[in-house]
Design brief:
The relative contact order is 0.21. A five-stranded parallel beta sheet has the order 2-3-1-4-5, with helices on both faces. Helix 1 crosses helix 10 and helix 7 crosses helix 8. It has 221 residues and is an alpha/beta fold. 49% of the residues lie in helices and 11% in strands. It has ten helices and five strands; from the N terminus they run E-H-E-H-H-H-H-E-H-E-H-H-E-H-H.
Amino acid sequence: MAENMSNTLSTKGMSEFERGYKVPDCVVLDSAYCSMGRMIALRACKAAGWTYHDTVTLLELVPECGVTADDVDAFEAKSAAPDADLDELRATDECQRIIGAYRLAAERALSIGPCLIHDRVGKAFVASLGKTCASAMTYASDRPAMRVRAKVSPLYADLTDDAEIDAAIAYEDAHRRSWHALADDGTTWGEPATYDLMINTDLIGRDFAAQILAQLMIGQN
């Protein structure tokens, strides 16, 4: 049945259509490879006056855990393997040590002040600390542009074949997908329903994407 919308244009005062926005304590950001997520997050944090945290900076907050970025890389290479059994990996001491280090680091980061955390913890964990959180993901849709960005990385600068570059992008995303599955609360990496905000960075560009994230942090002017 067609709905006549002419009487719904003015909804002022109707609580069903109005909701005030509260600035969160934290934004957790996942990013698909070559979507410029880290660059966008850094720019957004600079604009909002927030602290940015990722794989490396979080570990700096918990030196007593003894986890290094190399440890994380080695573990994620295992988890991204096609034959990886995530249930088995989740039960290992190695996995629990790394996840535990990042959770402790996130707790310390949040005790200092508002921050954006890139890739390492999920919204449910932040909420379990009694903090408010918004979740976002950046993704890209322009395959030729993604290939160009991939080749900027020293890891893949020598690749020339499009199929090889696409495989490299897929491999990097597999790292992120498997980490999310191991460390998060049962939500699915890359699934729109997992996030409060999905940003197609090829559609709106790096700078506007950073503005949107910053606005999420500071609220409406």
